[in-house]
Structure formats: structure tokens, C-alpha cells
Amino acid sequence: MADSTAPAEVADPGVRRVNELPDDRFRAELAQCLDIGRWVEALLSARPFADRAALVAAADAHARTITDDEADAALARHPRIGERAPGKDAEAAWSRSEQSGFADGEAAVREAFAAGQAAYERRFGRIYLVCASGLSGTELLDGLRARMGNDPAEEARVVADELRKIALLRIGKVLGTP
């Protein structure tokens, strides 16, 4: 739980709510943003946050050190692009919303993407992950094709950065984007 050094009046109601969450609820909510225990614990230790910028800066800084093993573990929580995230929780709803541009795309693009995604999985041994929010099916396909040229080490860095982008997007959702 947030300690007694929390600012008396945090203006942002989302930050105030996050600061006041019991530790177990904080862990559960932030794991929906990025399911890496070290990242969640670092943010828990950084509470209380004075404002949204402080929370986002801490989240960003700690997400920039994602290891390959952490990325692989976090990927287990992400559905493939084009697959409907199961469940009725916030994380599943976020995932469906983030991929909405793909779902509304042309059938030919979705088919080409599925084939490209299968090739990606054979090449890199993991699902293809991208922060899909706001991207069309064509943009997602172009990005997938471009990343197929990466070597495995570069692609691991790209995946970690995509996880970071998704985490920051979802932090805004946890806070209630103004």
C-alpha cells in the first residue's frame, strides 16, 4: 500500500487511485500493462507518484531494461494479432481494442498477415508482437514484412520495445486517459 509520504493532494484522480491501491491490487492492475514481475515491483517500490508524468517516466525507464527472458515470458500473455483475446477482463478488452484496425481490414491483408506471422514464428520462435493501436491492417503487414529482415538479436530488442510501448499505452488506460 502507498506509504504515508504520499502527497496529500494528488490532482489526478487516476494517479491518486493507483497510489492508494493495496499492493496486491496494484500488482494485478500493472501486470495487465506489462506482465514482468521485476517491472511491476519496481513501480510498486516507486510509489507514491506525484503525478501522471512521474508514473509514466518510471514505467518507461523500467521497461527499457526488459531482458530476452522477460520478453518471452510476457509474450505468453499476448494473443497473436488477429486472434480475439479471450476473457472479459480489462486486459482482454484492451487487446481487442488495440487490434481493432486489423480486425476491420481487408480479407486479403489479413490472409497475407497470417502467412507472414507464421513465417515470423518459424524464423524467430515467438509470436509477432507490435503495439498495434491505431495501425491499419496494411500498416501492420508492412511492419511485419520489414521486421522479417532483422537478425534475432535486433528483433529481440524490437520486441522488448514494443512491449514497452504497449505498457505505456495501457498505463494510460489504468489511469483513465484524460
From TrEMBL:
EC number: 4.1.1.97
Biased segments, Basic and acidic residues type: 80-91
SUPFAM superfamilies: UraD-Like
Pfam family, one: OHCU_decarbox
Organism: Nocardiopsis sediminis
Keyword Heme: no
Keywords: Decarboxylase, Lyase, Purine metabolism
A GO term for molecular function: 2-oxo-4-hydroxy-4-carboxy-5-ureidoimidazoline decarboxylase activity
Entry superkingdom: Bacteria
Xref: InterPro entries: OHCU_decarboxylase, OHCU_decarboxylase-2, OHCU_decarboxylase_sf
NCBIfam families hit by this protein: PRK13798.1 (NF010372), UraD_2 (TIGR03180)
Residue stretches spanning the membrane: none
UniProt gene name: uraD
Residues in Oxo-4-hydroxy-4-carboxy-5-ureidoimidazoline decarboxylase domain copies: 19-171
The protein's annotated pathway: Purine metabolism; urate degradation; (S)-allantoin from urate: step 3/3
Catalytic activity as recorded in UniProt: 5-hydroxy-2-oxo-4-ureido-2,5-dihydro-1H-imidazole-5-carboxylate + H(+) = (S)-allantoin + CO2
Segments of this protein annotated with the region Disordered: 78-97
EC class of the enzyme, as a word: lyase
Name of the protein this chain belongs to: 2-oxo-4-hydroxy-4-carboxy-5-ureidoimidazoline decarboxylase
